[in-house]
Design a protein that fits this description.
Helix content of chain A: over 70%
Order of helices and strands of chain A: HHHHHHHHHH
Number of helices of chain B: 2
Structural class of chain A: mainly alpha
Oligomer: heterodimer
Order of helices and strands of chain B: HEEEEEEEEH
Radius of gyration of chain B: 25 Å
Shape of chain A: globular
Radius of gyration of chain A: 22 Å
Number of strands of chain B: 8
Strand content of chain B: 25-35%
Largest sheet of chain B: 8 strands, mixed
Helix content of chain B: 25-40%
Number of helices of chain A: 10
Amino acid sequence: MLKRLSGVLVGLGHRVTTGIWRIGAGARLLFYIWVYLIESFKRTGLIVREIFATGVLSLLIILVSAFFVGMVLGLQGYNTLQKYGSSEAIGVLVALSLVRELGPVVTALLFAGRAGTAITAEIGLMKATEQLSAMEMMAVSPVARVIAPRFWAGVISMPILAALFSMVGVLGGYFVAVPIIGVDDGAFWSQMQANVDFRDDIMNGVIKSLVFGVVCTMIALFEGYDAPPTAEGVSRATTRTVVNSSLAVLAIDFILTSFMISV
Amino acid sequence: MERTTIDLWVGVFVALGIAAIFGLALKVGNLTSSSIGETYTVTAAFENIGGLKPHAPVKSAGVLIGRVDGIVFDSKDYEAKVTIKLDKRYQFPVDTFANIYTAGLLGEQYVGLEAGGDEVVLKNGDKISHTQDAVVLEKMISQFLYNKASDNKSSETTKAAE
């Protein structure tokens, strides 16, 4: 009995210490990325190539899902709003939900699945094949050469992708509301413009997407860097990237929203 | 892939992103319509502002001429002091009437200004003295019910007298 209890306690202690160790290691990685800030922006070629990998190649999934999300919002919103005789407010509903919430959050979730996993798998495999150690042997810092460019590329790509998501989503909502359902074109845009504030809504969405970009990229990079150098280790790290990024994004979204919306 | 192709695609990507932010700002947001330009500030005291909020529109004859800047409670007079920013292009006489209206049945509340006949116009920092409070639906309903009840009672008494 006592043995089992102590076993449980040992397990708990092990989990806590590992958790703290991982947070510390992640913070140190982030610190080193900032140390190499100037150096990594001197070699823009690396960052540009990573923006291509994380941003440009994510465009298709982001744009297609944005259009569908917008269309669904249009349909669902119209269904409810017309009961209250205010179907013209559909533009406001679609725009506000996209700009404030769905744009940054869904983009971050898709980004974690599309770009984050790729980053983790790539870095994990680099580690497994000892490419990172080889760089260190040649006095090339893997953080400066591999980690930092990917970090900045992710941080730059995320807000762009989120803005595109919101814009295409609004167009998707327009496509359903105006040509298909027959809401008045002018009312759709004018109600939207009257109720969406640039600073309170759009800029807050951009801030959110920037934070999510940092969080998702950082988790992906750390999981890859920390992955055990085996096939199983890399696959587990990739899974953890998606799970942890999604949870972190949703939790941080709640915290940010509670700060942004003054009750 | 070749370096220039990658550069091209990234350039297209970033340009699209900037275009999306501009599109959101101009087409979705109110960056264009909220640019009221040069403003001057006037205050108005209300006994009850209902659901009026900061940034609510200020309209005259249905045209947007300014926005509510801030609402504070004045503990000296127990009134709500509403600060209003008005467009410099529009001048109003000092005896202008400020009302709180509701757009539609369930819509947002806004301040409506009705110009008076005075020669002197409102200047920065002036106070609008003629105000009318927001309509509180509960008060109206209770008044209506009260009237109805007293009507019934009086008709019953007349019937009994007959």
